[in-house]
Specification:
Elements: E1 2-8, H1 29-40, E2 41-42, E3 45-46, E4 50-56, E5 65-70, H2 81-95, E6 102-105, E7 108-112, H3 115-123, E8 128-137, E9 148-153, H4 160-169, E10 173-175, H5 183-200
Parallel strand pairs: 1-4, 1-9, 8-9, 8-10
Antiparallel strand pairs: 2-3, 4-5, 5-7, 6-7
Helix pairs in contact: 1-2, 1-5, 3-4
The structure holds S-adenosylmethionine.
Length: 205
Amino acid sequence: MRRFLLIAHRVPPTGEFTLNDLAGGGGRMDEVARAVSTAFTLSNDLRRDTEMTIVFSAAPPPVARKVELVGARLRYLNPDERSTAALLKNALVRAVDFPREFESSPGLRVASVDPAAELRAFLERPGALWLCESGGPLADSVRGGADHAFVLSDPYEPTEAERSLLEGSGVPRCSVGPRSLRTSQVIDLVHHAVDVAEATGRPAG
Ligand SMILES: C[S@@+](CC[C@H](N)C(=O)[O-])C[C@H]1O[C@@H](n2cnc3c(N)ncnc32)[C@H](O)[C@@H]1O
């Protein structure tokens, strides 16, 4: 299983943004939607072995939300970023009037969250890795047939509190290369590294 935890720092957790301004008023929802699309879509198929939790941390609990996407159950995910953003916005907007966790569409659950607790719990998962520019080579840390759990950030740096949780967890830092890449690009390279490890039993060169 491949799991991702993506911290979305500025997307309004109540879903109060327009699909016509995903990068501005949407707090970079364009990149979050792109990351979801990259995490799950293949050419004419979906990655059923992938799960993603997006923590929308722009407001403190109880307004902070998480959306969990489960590849094995996911439906209505199209490759374009606007319709993906609409799927996520729909989940966030409906959660405003719904205090408990619920499934807003197949394979997509939404709930209130304590962002720090969620991050802490994710870092305890088997195979947890922190994706950041200054880490060791990712290929050294991925293996075929193993569970992996990757933490990464949206276009904004982790906050000081998040950084201190990440550093204190002892989870290895991994890098996909020397350049600072977009979140969605990092996910592509991570999938590639795991795909190669699974297909060949060897790290991606
Ligand atoms: C757009 S980057 C964050 C901002 C970026 N550090 C900057 O200089 O503006 C988004 C996230 O992708 C991940 N990332 C970017 N480049 C990476 C790399 N070379 N290796 C591993 N992760 C990377 C990190 O989790 C990072 O927080």
